[in-house]
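Worked example 4.2. Below are the chains of a multi-component assembly; read each line carefully before continuing.
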Amino acid sequence: MKPKIIGVTELALRDAHQSLLATRMALEDMVEACEDIDKAGYWSVECWGGATFDACIRFLNEDPWVRLRTFRELMPNSRLQMLLRGQNLLGYRHYEDMVVDKFVEKSAENGMDVFRVFDALNDPRNLERAMKAVIKTGKHAQGTICYTISPVHTVEGYLKLAGRLIDMGAHSIAIKDMAAILRPQPAHDIICAIKETYGEDIQINVHCHSTTGVTMATLFSAIQAGADVVDTAISSMSLGPGHNPTGSLFHMLEGTGYHAELDMVRLGRVRDHFAKIRPRYAEFESPTLVESGIFRSQIPGGMLSNMESQLRMQGAADKRAEVMAEVPIVKADAGHPPLVTPTSQIVGSQAVFNVLFGRYEKMTAEFADLVLGYYGRTHGEVNPEVAKIAEEQTGKKPIHDRPADHLEPEWDQLVTEAHALEGNDGTDEDVLTYAMFPAVATEFFKTRAKGPINVGKSAAQVKAEEEARLTGETTPTAPITYNVRMGGRTLAVKVERA
Amino acid sequence: MKPKIIGVTELALRDAHQSLLATRMALEDMVEACEDIDKAGYWSVECWGGATFDACIRFLNEDPWVRLRTFRELMPNSRLQMLLRGQNLLGYRHYEDMVVDKFVEKSAENGMDVFRVFDALNDPRNLERAMKAVIKTGKHAQGTICYTISPVHTVEGYLKLAGRLIDMGAHSIAIKDMAAILRPQPAHDIICAIKETYGEDIQINVHCHSTTGVTMATLFSAIQAGADVVDTAISSMSLGPGHNPTGSLFHMLEGTGYHAELDMVRLGRVRDHFAKIRPRYAEFESPTLVESGIFRSQIPGGMLSNMESQLRMQGAADKRAEVMAEVPIVKADAGHPPLVTPTSQIVGSQAVFNVLFGRYEKMTAEFADLVLGYYGRTHGEVNPEVAKIAEEQTGKKPIHDRPADHLEPEWDQLVTEAHALEGNDGTDEDVLTYAMFPAVATEFFKTRAKGPINVGKSAAQVKAEEEARLTGETTPTAPITYNVRMGGRTLAVKVERA
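Applying the procedure described above to all two chains together yields the following structure tokens:
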């Protein structure tokens, strides 16, 4: 029997360095690998999303639209894929529908092929407009189920959401496991349910992180259950809070009734390229190797490091355990939203506030909006007492309809504001950049002409550090007293780095 | 339906630090974790073997028998497990039968419960005596199949070997995948075949390394096929060239018909303990994260680093690729032995010699012995031309019977030699230590009284290095010129570490 071909989405250019290197990788460090990635036989190449867009203009002085066009040029044979946060697009608020349309249209025009559209709350009303916009461009609209574990999340619930996405015209369904908590059995159950209910032809893509050390088995189980495409990252950009390795997936399937049609010689070159690049960004590396405690704490890796840095800034690093215990409570009060951008930040910050100031004594504006419905509808019920506190503290009323329906048209205003900025080039792309991240974009436009900044270390620095590591020498951070001979005299001289 | 309980063997105390930290971990750094390991619910605790024994006396000035007795005392509820190289015991040659008996007897007496007995060639004649000796002590005799991939290795061949092990009275069968090349499908096929042929009650243990990134799925598939016990390492001592994480295995099984009865609170403490300890041995860490190229090269991680160091010593580090290409040829000529101690070293060294001096121009004594049958019978046929060269170069004749049958009784001679050594304490244990590693033991006996040496860094050193890493400062290895102000004058002073 001919094996079923399993498609693979390569994550090296987006989620891998987002998860492993704080999204800092410069386009310059990716270009060399593009030809091999383009010709290796991937189903798609993920290369764009909210964090990469943000990091481009915040840290790298790099125009994210140029990055996209460069990928388009360097990978003419590939489906380029992006992650789109539904009505939030790449930003942290809802946008009025026309902005959604414009963003999708311009992304498609600049080269995007596959739009993975998700909403942190799994609220279909937050996905509809973006899905419609993608379909209108003729590109691939992938509707997403954000996976979480809670008392209110069931296989039936996910199945129902899949149905809504199919009704919207989704060309495929993604199961997104950002916290690496999708176990083999539920993966199997959800995928079987979708295929049985909506037909074998429904394409299912599975995106798992590797943080818990479980999900290589999840991919295996998902494929056996009928998953069509899985997401992996080239081995030298894999594991830890990232993803399972592409080459390992290929080998895992050998001898089974499944096969990933990848060119392993090209994959070897891609691996070698990033093995050379990754050490340049060592300072941004997460120390996480594997963390199965996430099953209990429900806290994805990125969220944890955010909370830790908030606590440190408040001089309350010792409250880590309390905050970790508070998260599940806050999550439950908010109606059990999956923890993914932006809910992970919103729930995490509120947990920090609860520990520092007393439970709900001080609500963040975002958390109040969440429990009042301004982000959409959570799958579980919001704790009514907490919603009441939010009303009292903010003076806002809860809403129950589609949040974006409360927005006034804003495109013309955004155009006016963007065009007034120093360094703005007058394109719709620049208006969209401004719309996504107004403050950061304002600074970026001013400095853009200076060209990209590579925040990685140079090859020479990496080599020197590696040598220092091998010789076991450590850095003198404190003053050092040297005996210095000058003109026959020996002096004890205390020196310190200026 | 009640889930099937899956037993777990914890590898942290033996194979994990052998694979990750060059076997350097001191007993001192393990004792604190023992109570939690003992009470966590493991099927067994692997804690002793050839490399740990060797490292104890070679690097740590630690008596391996004292280590074993300490484990026995600290873990009264656990099955202690060791890895025994059949007729080789823990050494690199065959021992006469009485030495085998003595070694097993003394190991059992000092506290060992489970003996995983293997032979690098899978030659049952090299396993028989050790298995018999274990059974005589009333302890658990685990017969081992070393897994490899070759044109002559088939499910039927492994099944036949399992039958031989069962005939020897094996209490369980281990499938040992030292190179992390056991894929889910063959794992499934071999286990199903054994269970179908010899009965559901045959206990099967599965030992996989994680080097290729594939084997978490292999464990999943193995369990579904009927495996009863699997080997894992606590998460903070897992992955890379090591093993899959214990906590991840636990979570992976949730919702399936299988369950690992482990106390996750105790596991959390064991994890935290080794997370604290591991950085002390950073200089011994392997840089390997994941390496699926092993499927092509057939070279396990440890073997690769050995070959690289041999090449460096010969000033031929640039020949790495040629040697990697030579290994499969040498392996085939030797009759496709699985690559595991000692065959991995023997095949690896010969590949290096072939590249440096011309193919088989210069044969190592060990490789000549291998192709002439002195290590036992390989599963595939030895290349007769290569065997002929070995005969010519060494003047030795090939043998076809059990290698140990060519040995004279040697116990009394070993006793005499050992007792004559400075610092020998007159026990049979010391005779065995000498028998295993004569040269190293001779030195060790002299220095033993000084007590163990911990080769890990101190907690303070680890902290200083971590801080240096976080501040991104690098070590000045070259001279640095400082501007130094002394008494109002500024001098340019060039300083250099003395």
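Take a moment to check your reading of the output against the notes. Residues 184-198 of chain A form the longest helix (15 residues). Chain A is about 45% helix and 10% strand.
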